[in-house]
Here is the input.
Amino acid sequence: MAVSPAKPGGPGLIGLDIDAGQIHMCQIRPREPGLYTIIAKISISYSGSRKDLLASPKRLKALIRAGLKEKNFKGKRVAALIPWDDVNILLLTYKATVDDVDAEVLRMLDKRVEGAIEDYVVDFVPVRSNPSAEEHMMVATVSRRDKVDALLQALTDADLEVDSLDIAPTALRRIVSALYTGHAADNVLMINCYHDDSYLTVISGRRFLLNQSVPFGERMLLQRIARELDITIESALNLVLNNGFQKHQTLALGSTDGEPDIPSTLLEIVKPCFLELVEEINRILLLTAAETHGLPVSRVCLLGSIARWPGAQQVLLSLLDFDAPDGQIEFTQVFEDENDNTRVPWSGLFSDISIAMGLALQGLIGNE
Here is the structure.
């Protein structure tokens, strides 16, 4: 669905991400070229599954209405997320000599989906279109039409005006575009961590390049900590949030110097899980280099629930033997929050509402 551009200086759409257990909303206003103000943001916790919430329009409407009122959002026009698990993202390669690219892409997709392609909502954008290349690449997103229709109906029943539906990688690409206006963004790897899975997304020069899910999530780490320390999941989470991995982080590289402490103990417990994630990331790094003719990933950003764990990103970067480049743009230089008490740097990137932010940027980024 096409997005309507925001009025100059006025607020944009409300980015809406209904995650498992939380509803994230964000609204942004452009200040001047390349700078934005977050005028409202909120994360609303709810019980039960997302499926049950979407099937209860009165409950969903009440939660959203309360959030809109509490943070003084402007209007009810939303850009909403199609859930990660309702979208299949495919990288397609086709001959440069093909005359009808749309027909060729649909033909290839028809062979890779269950049932008829007419039962799906399809979108696709080029990744690389060098006229001299023998093959071109296309990223296609495929969602079952019945699930898309059900989401639209649920949001409409909740008294929202749905301006557009979007996918998470596209929302993340907008954040990268906003952060690196005026110069090349190189290759950026964004790792979105959820309860059970994480999604590795590569943005290459402001273009979405790769996306892959991996079995690495907050629940798995907390269960491991709770089992090793013989405590509850809730106690494990509190222990991590209160202590993190900020002390003795050299342990991530194999050092055991110093007296044992809670952060180093926690890190020792979860380190095998992080190492498995690193293996998957290294595969993505190799694929990225192959697809971009050797251009490496220059920035890695951890998002989602585990990004809230103190020291988690630093541990991940140390295991990857990855150093953030000098002069990296700070998040607060691009996005100003009207509530200074919640302003955070790029390293935090409002870990829970990053996708809602990317959705809220629809119509505010040039050349989209």
